[in-house]
TrEMBL record:
SUPFAM superfamilies: Acetyl-CoA synthetase-like
Gene behind the chain: LOC114851950
Stored InterPro entries: AMP-bd_C, AMP-bd_C_sf, AMP-binding_CS, AMP-dep_synth/lig_dom, ANL_N_sf
Listed EC numbers: 6.2.1.3
Residue ranges of every copy of the AMP-binding enzyme C-terminal domain listed in the record: 497-572
Compartments where located: Cell membrane
Source organism per UniProt: Betta splendens
Name of this chain's protein: long-chain-fatty-acid--CoA ligase
Length: 620
């Protein structure tokens, strides 16, 4: 098997050298990328086939054995070595196994922000053979309950500052017999137990591997919530094998053992957790963990902690470029930036201002089975087509009808590949080595992401829901996400989820939610077209209160447009394209229009408000 792969790969490289010699100035990039992929694939095959099964936790334990005194996590003014992290997580594991009846295969939901304890608890759960469900700490009430129950968790662990959010859903949790822990020394809420005191009292000796003997590469390692493209958040199943796949991206982009990575994005997302934290464990490097992103402290932190690698999402890079220029902008050790969504204009500005940082733009969905790394650093591109990528990671770009929201099929009913210069829907072929595990306890949504009979009868693909453009040189550019999700402030917002919540407001009969562009901002901001019940007025106060209680700020519709009737397609799907195009300009829109003023409520939209948003005086 190995010899065969090596042979194919090297023959491939030889052919590639010849082919590209005369036609490409990206020869060196392509070759070095090919070598990196081959090296990585060999490593991956070795790791994934090890017996007994070798998870990221085992890799962590090897780091503890080989470099116990190396710093693992640096957080605020403290640091923890690999050995200390091992002891801390042993204590958590012992506390949990003493005070709960958790056994292998059970799920525990984590509801907390970025802090070292997040890491200890996850390690502890893995040591017990359990799965951690990483809840987004911005969600509340119905969404929180939904996320909690869709992974069938038995225990909830929440940080002390989220106590109120937990108390609100406590009656339902109690009904379901859920054990609730708060990370504090003591707790006097009926039905909630404190956890910190129990961790303090627990011993720190290693736990028997027997406790996780039933873990395999195919067992769920964590659940990460994604809005996917429709409906309420779904728990994407991340198996131990998938965890390795994403973690090894760090090796692919050339991370070295002396690197220090800055993790400030929320750990409940896959980029910080899988690519950042798990990747750091795979390479045995140091993580600088921060509670939250801060544009004004970003470079000071990088200098203070000698950070060499940063992760990003497009919006972050824009925030950094928007900070006032300083003399010491280039005074730092950051050499590599890893992430996605970097827009071409910001990218160029960023490099010019903050120095020659190697940017590796990646593309991939949490639950997806395909992904790319921009190995040439071509500004704006997510990747360049590469034959090895096509072998390891077979994908296809097909023609997509954005108005009808479905793939274009030919007379025989098959999909059509796009030509160079066109934009198409990205599909990833589902097979043993590129599986799609779908969503926990949600067969319907899992099936919805699969596309069958694509090029031949019976074939099966994962539908990414993303539109990518292929240019004439073979570079791929992310264009848009189809259907029912938009991105705002780095978070995906599922339009149907927001619409469902609006329907709970008394005066609302129908709601159509979509995202609109705002000048000077990445992504799209939430807007809703609403039809009111007969003889009722828009109740701005009730709407505001409901939206504020149930939705995180990035998901709240900032504009509401009242319509007599909502436009639907022939198949009764709500039409969004026209609404999106019309945006929120009161000069264009005749319908009554409302604007959500932060911390105040919905006020009538005026030309002044519009102008101040367009000029950037009103911040969104
Ligand atoms: C950062 O690097 C400098 C020089 O290499 C060193 O003196 C300093 O102690 C380092 N700081 C930290 C926090 O490791
Ligand atoms: C392998 C490779 O060539 N990577 C490129 C990635 O992007 C940076 C710039 O953004 C280039 O400098 C690298 O050469």
């Amino acid at each position: 098997m190995m010899a065969y792969i090596l042979f194919t790969a090297f023959t491939g490289v030889a052919i590639l050298l010849l082919v590209f010699y005369f036609r490409s100035c990206y020869l060196w990039d392509d070759v070095s990328y090919a070598l990196a992929i081959i090296k990585l694939t060999i490593r991956k095959i070795k790791v994934l086939n090890r017996k007994p099964c070798y998870t990221i936790l085992d890799c962590f334990l090897d780091n503890v054995a080989h470099q116990p005194d190396k710093k693992f996590i640096i957080f605020e003014e403290s640091f923890y070595t690999y050995r200390q992290a091992e002891k801390e997580s042993n204590k958590v594991a012992r506390a949990l196994s003493t005070h709960t009846s958790l056994t292998q295969g059970d799920t525990v939901a984590l509801f907390m922000g970025n802090e070292p304890r997040f890491v200890w608890i996850w390690l502890a759960l893995t040591k017990l053979g359990c799965t951690a469900a990483l809840l987004n700490y911005n969600i509340r009430s119905t969404s929180l309950l939904h996320c909690f129950s869709c992974c069938e968790a038995k225990v909830l662990v929440a940080s002390a500052d989220l106590r109120e959010a937990v108390e609100k859903v406590l009656p339902t949790l109690k009904q379901q017999g859920i054990l609730v822990f708060i990370l504090s020394e003591e707790c006097n809420i009926d039905g909630v137990e404190s956890l910190c005191d129990k961790i303090e009292q627990a011993g720190d000796q290693p736990l028997s591997p027997q406790l996780r003997a039933s873990t395999t590469m195919k067992s769920p390692a964590v659940y990460i919530y994604t809005s996917g493209t429709t409906g309420l958040p779904k728990a994407a199943v991340i198996t131990h094998a998938q965890m390795w796949r994403v973690a090894s991206l760090q090796a692919l982009v050339g991370v070295r053992s002396d690197d220090i990575i800055f993790v400030y994005l929320p750990l409940y997302h896959s980029s910080a957790f899988l690519m950042g934290l798990c990747g750091a464990i795979a390479e045995g490097i140091t993580v600088v963990l921060r509670r939250k992103f801060s544009a004004s402290n970003f470079w000071n932190d990088c200098r203070k902690y000698n950070v060499t690698i940063i992760q990003y999402i497009g919006e972050i890079m824009r925030y950094l470029c928007n900070t006032p220029k300083k003399d010491n902008d280039r005074d730092h050790k950051v050499r590599l930036a890893l992430g996605n969504g970097f827009r071409a204009d910001t990218w160029a500005e960023f490099l010019q201002r903050f120095g020659d940082i190697c940017v590796r733009e990646c593309y991939g969905a949490t639950e997806g089975n395909t992904g790319f790394v921009n190995h040439t650093g071509k500004i704006g591109a997510v990747a360049k087509e590469h034959f090895l990528n096509k072998i390891m990671n077979p994908y296809a770009l097909i023609k997509y009808d954005t108005a009808r929201e479905e793939p274009v099929r030919d007379s025989r009913g098959f999909c059509i590949k796009i030509q160079k210069g066109e934009t198409g829907l990205l599909l990833g072929k589902i097979r043993n080595t590129n599986p799609f595990h779908g969503y926990a306890k949600n067969k319907q949504q899992t099936e919805k992401k699969k596309l069958r009979d694509v090029f031949v009868k019976g074939d099966l693909y994962y539908n990414s829901g993303d539109l990518l453009k292929l240019d004439h040189e073979g570079f791929l550019y992310f264009q848009d996400r189809v259907g029912d999700t938009f991105r705002w402030k780095g978070e995906n917002v599922a339009t149907t989820e927001v619409a469902d919540l609006l329907l709970m407001v008394d005066c609302v009969e129908e709601a159509n939610v979509y995202g609109v562009k705002v000048p000077g901002h990445e992504g799209r901001i939430g807007m809703a077209a609403v039809k009111l019940k007969a003889n009722m007025d828009f109740d701005s106060k009730a709407t505001y209160q409901h939206v504020r209680n149930c939705l995180p700020s990035y998901a709240r519709p900032r504009f509401i447009r009242i319509q007599d009737a909502l436009a639907v397609t022939g198949t009764y799907k709500q039409m969004k394209l026209e609404l999106v195009a019309e945006g929120f300009n009161p000069a264009v829109i005749r319908d009554p229009l409302f604007f959500l003023e932060e911390d105040k409520g919905y006020i009538p939209m005026t030309q002044e408000v519009f102008d101040s948003i367009a000029e950037g005086t009103t911040r969104l």
